[in-house]
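pinging the channel bc i need a second pair of eyes. not urgent but kinda urgent?? the chain im working w is below, pasted from the shared doc
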Amino acid sequence: MLEPTSALVGYFGDNPPPLITDGRFSGGSKGILVANLPDAYKEGSILPYLKNGDKIDLDLVKKQINIDIDEYDMVMRTMYMNISHPPMPFNKGYVYKYGKYASGIEDGYS
């Protein structure tokens, strides 16, 4: 992740935008970095509810990530998620194995 964070700093200077990823960062990365997000298929994750164009609020003090959508949209997305479970994007290979065996940082290991 050092390469994309360095590119952001190189392009935006001392005020790069936040970078949100499911990856992990080294000690050399700079800026507001949100890493190791919960897997989109784990219970309680907000990721399945996100759509392109959604506004996301990063509250650095409370250490929270919130979707800025109205209540009606959230209810509709929840209803859709309850009747339509998206398939796993990969069913073989390294990415599949990673998704199957890796856990989040909240578990204390990966």
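so Residues 40-87 form one domain. and The beta strands are 19-20, 33-34, 55-59, 64-68. — does that match what u expected or am i reading it wrong
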